[in-house]
Fold MTH1187 family thiamine-binding protein.
Amino acid sequence: MIVAFSVTPLGVGEDVGEYVADAVRVVRESGLPNRTDAMFTSIEGEWDEVMDVVRRAVAAVEARAPRVSLVLKADIRPGVTDGLTSKVETVERHLAE
């Protein structure tokens, strides 16, 4: 499964980069395939391991912020691996045609 999620601290002002970095650090240390862009972090793995990483990423932000917003989107497709790469490669292949 692939989960794209965004963790946003609330009540800490406009500059939230250091809080978001706490969440991304948890994802990167998990060892699961992941990507971070300007809006979301995507992570790939089995349900329990991915959701545990999301929970810990939220907890890392929650430890420093009075309130946390979580947006999550999941692609649950058993048997598919390397979806983070293969999905993008498919689109790029079509764009190159």
User: Anything to note?
Assistant: Residues 47-62 form the longest helix (16 residues). Helices lie at 17-29, 47-62, 83-96. The beta strands are 2-10, 34-36, 41-44, 67-75. The chain has a mean pLDDT of 95.
